[in-house]
Amino acid sequence: MSQARVHGAGPTGCLAALALAQVGWEVQLCDPLDANQLLRRQRAYALTHSSAALLDRLGLWQAIKPQLVPFSSLELWDQGTGRQSHFSVADLGRGRRRRLGPLGAPADPGAGAKGPGSGGSGAGSGGDQSAVGWILQHGPLMELLLQQLQASPLVTLQLGQPAPSPGAGDPVPLVVGADGSQSASRQAAGIAWLERTYGQACLTVQVRLGGARADQAWELLRPEGPFAVLPLGGDAFQLVWSAPARRLRQLESLDAAAFLDQLAGALPDQLQPEALLDQPRAYPVAVALAWPLARGPLVLVGDSAHRCHPVGGQGLNLGWRDVACLQHLAARVSAGRLAPERLAAAYRWRRWPDLLATLLATDLLVRLFSNRQRLLLPLRRLALDLLNGSPLLRRLSLAAMTDGPCRLWRR
User: Fold this and answer.
1) DSSP three-state, residue 134
2) Which of 58, 59, 117, 361 is most exposed, with the fewest beta carbons within 10 Å of its own?
3) Domain segments of the chain: what residues?
4) Ranges assigned E (strand) in 292-403
5) Can you give the pTM of this predicted structure?
């Protein structure tokens, strides 16, 4: 039986461990944080269809569905030109709505969902209900993942203690680095980290908004940086506010009333901030890529392998596509169709197209829309006008956001 060790028990590392165990690997999962510390993080994630498909394949979708907040529309608004473009479930295409129809149905805890580990949720069983995407809080996700890891006979949890450094003499044939952008695994392996920081930082906060639809998300393309408004259920929303770092540090230090006043000036008139639900927190943003993605027994996934601007909510979903690729290759090893020593090289080459396309696309969006260059305004107007006038272009754009840009090449 093949063996692996995963460094990092965040959402991506936990999914990597479960994915490997599902295809018959014995997995050791290590993290210096204990379970309570792993659960404590306060944030929400935007899940796309590629992530929904992975959760479904791992048998986790029905268990997590009551905690999901689906949104059926996405409003893209370039505030520099005043142009808007509306994405809805109809822009997913009929094939996607049928294939993932039941996955996007509104959460119903009393609907007799299958338990985790019982296999797929029936994606592909028909139906026309769907969602553009889903919002999921960190706490419920981590609770489910840790429960599944503890229940798996093939997973050994080693939380609250540092992982050993991977090396040429490591007895484990596969080491998965999922220990974040400051990855000790990556540094110990001597893998380069190519990084370019933006002039912007990013502030996240959860607020209560008046005048907002509970099933609608917003991506505001503002001259100072993108601004996402993501529904959390009812009148609660997660905000992801990009702006110059100095401005966000000032906002972070304001009291609640002063912060809400500043927020009201940044949001569209119909969205009225009423109360803070947590403490605003700012962090730097960058585009980064590990080179190479694998060395020796080590392969990198998630933030250990790459970072991108939070515009479009691509970061977590890109990392979960790493996990899906890793599981596919590990299954081939288990079936005797791929030599174990070839897994790392196969992973490295399979992931490059998706990583490069996504990093370049998010970077281009920021460069094109986060500025006050008047010469770019006609190009931005043209881009939004083309989106509004072409259902095919909206469908392709939404497919790139929900399944990754490289999916377009396979259509």
Assistant:
1) strand
2) 117
3) 3-70+94-124+132-196+286-373+399-410
4) 294-295, 298-300, 306-307
5) 0.88
